[in-house]
Design goal:
The protein is an alpha/beta fold. 39% of the residues lie in helices and 15% in strands. The protein is built from 13 helices and 14 strands. The strands form 4 sheets. It has a 7-stranded mixed β-sheet with strand order 2-10-9-8-5-3-4, with helices on both faces. Helix 4 links the parallel strand 3 and strand 4. The radius of gyration is 21 Å and the shape is globular. The chain binds pyridoxal-5'-phosphate (PLP). The site of pyridoxal-5'-phosphate has 12 residues, from helix 3.
Length: 385
């Protein structure tokens, strides 16, 4: 039984429901951020992140910074790209557009390959784009949280290796890390940026990322200084290295309580092979998607191979408005999110299924949500044709 006060089940695509032990570890007594206890916790946490990202290359560099997922975009744009350098942004929804905006702020020359809503740019068009122009980096949103579209990182990496091996492969894993398989070394990824509040299962407030040795070399070989201060990897990299070596170090104050929560969550995540965690997310996702299809509803991500396992974006029947179904669900103590993709926003809702809601069947979160959706739609007058 959870020790949390009764509350509506939060099944939006982040923040997710949190495990009791993770929340309790945030009520840790105050300690110095440069004291041996906390330095050891931070060091262990960084070492565990290597396992979550499936990297054993000592040149890979984890960063855990106070901030949200968006800070990961700034890290990439401010540190790995210089003014006027070209970036190819694969866009499968709202978050690809925002990543592109972030690059523009730092003066990058941005090309976006946009897929029609509900699909993703296809490999032949990506190959054509990579052959037409030299790109310093290509970015992909692993799961775009606005559409529930999953991108295929392994195949994309093979293509980049074949056509433009010097281009850095950067993955926005905010809605995928710890819910979808990511093999950092095997897939030759140069950067994954993520955040605490989704499948990693920790309250919002941490930007969590991993960069390759090659990305670090790009940073070292910059011709111009990094035009950021808090987001400068040059400021943080030595601190992360020191923490991992269990040496006290300071650039800006970290949040000890959030780091404790991350340590607890990573210990839980790594208590079993990560492949089991990903398989469970896929199994529960399949069950949800079948329930959605049984209701006669379509998903925004149209093809099964393009559908994320951490969330489902569901088109509403024409007769039902998001402003009717979301309150109906809330009355049943289930919180889903509305649409945010500007082309289709009022027409769909989003169901996040990550972390404890997926992994702990005793909670009954997913079954309760499916039942609430069925009953809520019926109350809104919907009947399957
Ligand atoms: C795929 C993706 N990228 C980036 C972000 C931005 O993260 P944050 O809201 O934590 O800044 C989000 C947020 O939901 C996201 O889903």
């Amino acid at each position: 039984m959870s020790s949390q006060p009764e509350h509506p089940t939060l099944l939006i695509p982040g923040p997710i429901e949190f495990d009791d032990a993770v929340l309790q570890s945030m009520s840790h007594y105050s300690e110095s951020h440069v004291g041996p206890g906390f330095v050891s916790t931070f060091g262990d946490t960084l070492a565990m992140l290597r396992k979550l990202f499936q990297t054993t290359d000592p040149a890979s560099q984890p960063f855990v910074l106070s901030g949200s997922g968006t800070l990961g975009w700034d890290l990439v744009a401010a540190n790995l790209i210089e003014q006027g350098e070209s970036v190819l942004v694969l866009t499968t929804g709202y978050f690809g557009d925002s990543f592109a905006d972030c690059f523009k702020v730092y003066g990058a020359d941005v090309t976006q390959l946009k897929a029609p809503v509900g699909s993703r740019p296809q490999l032949p068009e990506i190959e054509k784009a990579l052959k037409e122009k030299k790109y310093k980096a290509i970015t992909v949103t692993h799961v775009d949280t606005s559409t529930g579209v999953l991108s295929e990182i392994e195949q994309l990496s093979a293509l980049v290796q074949k056509v433009s091996p010097e281009t850095l492969l950067i993955v926005d894993g905010v809605c995928s890390v710890a819910g979808e398989n990511i093999e950092f070394d095997n897939w030759k990824i140069d950067g994954v940026v993520s955040a605490s509040q989704k499948a990693i299962g920790v309250p919002a407030g941490l930007s969590i990322s991993m960069f390759s040795g090659r990305a670090m070399k790009v940073l070292e070989e910059r011709k111009t200084p990094v035009a950021a201060y808090f987001a400068s990897m040059n400021n943080w990299r030595p601190i992360m290295k020191n923490y991992e070596a269990k040496k006290p170090s300071y650039f800006a104050t970290p949040s000890p309580q959030l780091i404790h929560a991350l340590e607890t969550s990573l210990k839980q995540i790594l208590a079993a092979p990560v492949s089991e965690r990903f398989a469970k997310h896929a199994e529960v996702s399949d069950r949800i998607k079948k329930a959605v299809a049984d209701l006669g509803l379509k998903q925004v991500a149209s093809k099964p191979e393009d559908q994320a396992h951490t969330m489902t974006a569901i088109y509403l029947p024409e007769s039902v408005k998001a402003t009717d179904i979301l309150p109906a669900l809330a009355k049943k103590n289930v919180v889903f999110a509305g649409g945010i993709h500007k082309e289709i926003a009022p027409k769909y809702i989003r169901f996040g299924h990550m972390g404890v809601s997926v992994l702990d069947p005793k909670r009954g979160d997913v079954d309760r949500a499916i039942k609430a959706l069925q009953d809520g739609l019926a109350e809104c007058g919907y009947q399957k044709a």
